[in-house]
Amino acid sequence: MKLTVLIIGCGDIGITLGRELIDEGHKVIGVRRNIDALKDTGIKPLKLDLNTLDEAGASALPQADYVIYSVSADRFEESAYQSAYPDGLKRVLSVMEQHEKPPRRVFFVSSTSVYGQQEGEAVNEDTPIDATSFSGKLMYEAEQALLNHPLPGTVVRFSGIYGPGRDRLIHQVAEGRIAAVTPVIYSNRIHRDDCTGILAHLMRCQENGQPIADLYLGSDCEPVTLHNVMAWIGKQLKVESTDTMQSPLRRRASKRCDNARILETGYTFTYPSYREGYAQILKEGGFLQPQKA
After folding, report:
1. How far is CA 193 from CA 30, 123, 198, 281, in A?
2. In sequence order, which residues have a C-beta less than 8 Å from that of residue 285 and are 6 or more positions away?
3. How do residues 74-111 score in pLDDT, each as one tens digit?
4. Extents of the domains making up the chain
5. Which of 25, 36, 112, 142 keeps 20 to 30 A from 256, CA to CA?
């Protein structure tokens, strides 16, 4: 059956997901303040600033079978996060619930930054939240706004997203930099294509009558130390590290994300670990030195 999917904050993840859904025969509407990036994607553009939703009312957003809320904050400041996450999501929910045909489910793209663990503890969907940063606290506030709302909602907490164009770590390694061995900092990652894959998979699950949980942790199958990731990339690039990076204390989150719940739904990762994911980026991005004849 042809679905209508409304992607609010239609950036890199939204565009990739939208193209996948269009290929399956669905209609996709992408909401952005600047719609130029949606040109030639097949996604129907809707130019909108979420801050104007209150004045525009129910007519501002069209009816849709599914809504993906994947907004990014303008900057790393508390006011920007407040506007993008709890405030923006609440505005969208208040509009969507007014429609004659409300969405079957609203998905909120959240982050594992809601976890405050620093000692490499294992975390999953049942781990108590004790966010220490304003970003984590406001993200969690937005999650609760959705989960406490009458509309059916599911939160997907993605860990560190990487993929085409998200290659800062590769450039750091290429410059000879590497994370310190100690203190041990665990890094959890997910390739952009698995972010979109999970969201599309969960919609398919609901369409097939499979029960959907209200929360999933979206991270690949191998938590690993940041040092080991960078060392592996360095080996592929044939680069020796010359500069050891020390993580700032305020950013020293360290946890190991358990993705068992999403695996139990039948989702199969395209890139189950950083090795497969970064191998793809290194190859497609032209980072690898050509082999000598």
Report:
1. 18, 23, 9, 12
2. 164, 167, 170
3. 999 999 999 999 999 999 999 999 999 999 999 999 99
4. 4-162+190-222+254-271
5. 142
Q: Which CATH architecture has domain 4-162+190-222+254-271?
A: 3-Layer(aba) Sandwich (3.40)
Tell me the average pLDDT across 154-165.
95
Question: Burial level of 217, CB count in 10 A (0-12/13-18/19+)?
Answer: buried
Cα–Cα distance measured from residue 70 to residue 154, given in angstroms and rounded to the nearest whole number:
12
Exposure on the CB side of residue 282, measured as CA atoms within 13 A? 21
Residue type, position 68, single letter:
I
Asked, as a colleague might, if the bond just before 183 is cis with ω within 30 of 0, I would say: yes
Over residues 200-225, the pLDDT tens digits come to 999 999 999 999 999 999 999 999 99
